[in-house]
Known about the structure:
Blueprint lengths: L1 H21 L22 E5 L1 H4 L8 H5 L2 H9 L19 E2 L18 E4 L5 E4 L6 E2 L10 E3 L16 H4 L6 H6 L7 H6 L5 E5 L3 H8 L24 H15 L5 E5 L18 E3 L1 H8 L4 H13 L5 H7 L6 E4 L2 E3 L16 E3 L5 E2 L31 E2 L1 H24 L3 E3 L1 H10 L2 E2 L5 E2 L18 H19 L18
Amino acid sequence: xxxxxxxxxxxxxxxxxxxxxxxxxNPPGPxxxxxxxxxxxxxxxxxxxxxxxxxxxxxxxxxxxQEASFPNMLASNFALVGGGAFEIPYMADNLGGATxxxxxxxxxxxxxxxGNRLILSFAAGPAPVPVAGQGxxxxxxxxxxxxxxxxxxxxxxxxxLAPGYGSLAGLAIGAANPYFVRFSSSESATVIGxxxxxxxxxxxxxxxxxxxxxYATGGGTGVDQTGNxxxxxxxxxxxxxxxxxxxxxNGILTTMTVNGAKGAIANIPYVTDIPYxxxxxxxxxxxxxxxAAFLNSASAYGAYNAGLQQLQxxxxxxxxxxxxxxITFTAGEGNAVVIIDEDLTDLTxxxxxxxxxxxxTDADLMVxxxxxxxxxxxxxxxxxxxxxxxxxxADKWVLTPEEQKMVKDATDxxxxxxxxxxxxxxxxxxxxxxxxxxxxxxxxxxxxxSTVTADFxxxxxxxxxxxxxxxxxxxxxxxxxxxxxxxxYGSNLPGVNPxxxxxxxxx
Length: 507
């Protein structure tokens, strides 16, 4: 019996241990966050902008991309503090292609056909190719609004104030935008008018990229309209005069804030930070010794070089221009492409053969679409007519340093205006220019240790068109807006997790 009593303490410990094993104690979780809107009112949020606002990705507008637009991400955060419904003018499917009156050649507004989104085809290289199928979106099928996402792909700043920009009749004469045609409130409506008519309590505004971008992506084939205050005389690929831009943006903000709405505006990134201009090298040409020797001979570029040397000896061009224009190839990898450069001295009055051509340098930016054009034949019946080698690349395939300067000067002028307007109207300011530069230069590290970069197709920041963000990139943009809004208005919105969004659509 004494032995039995002696065992009782140990038996008690055993029972306690068993009890601990069968009824584990869960540690307390983190206290719930009490989210607040601060000084902002998100009950009626309207987003104004172009393709970057609409959710354009992979060279198309499609439902999944619209769902992954940064304004839709913002709206999910705003819902935590009283934000209302966020209506989107959805495309009919995830293909992105559209018809106008049943026709697929919808090139009625001066822009490319409304084609399907791009996917990465490993059978093609790998290379971006349009996804198969015919998109079911019919532009003339009007949607019933109003819509909170007023992003209109292709829109320039001054077009947001243009009556009839959503007019069916205007499509035939290039005066309307097919995307806005789908959801404009009337034939005479303006984008800003439809946005302001909803009496928003909060808005985002990201406008102006197309006022520069179309010139840049066209390889500088447009005109810098600085000094021309009449945008009705501009072509699609022209750079908008900074004073026109400033007046337009001031007018937009006056309209959007007339009833006291608060908001956030973003500035314009440099085009040199996007994969469209950083992917294709200036020197992608491999040559064997025989081909290099032929190209350097008097039968090819040797005659051109000799003509330049003659003019330099006559002091008609400088030694620097002679060196810049002299074309030389070597055996092996790394030969620079030959390009047309309109900023060179016109020498054709002395010799018609001395056209404005030179080899590209690392200061030139080859446009992304040149990757499938360089090395093709200008004449299918002439195997020596290789584009970029025997045949110089036209201006549209490259953005030269002189053209880059025009783009940068306009961007800087626009961004100075936007910074001043943010202060004047007491709005949150998003430095999208610095954000995109950081993605290119350093990358953005995510919670799982991965890094989002601006590398084409693999970086996760940009879609396959090389211009518009991928969904994960749009999430990073959304977080930049959230950070600026929290700072300005004293809210504590949590932002979104970029890992919840794909870095590349794979099908």
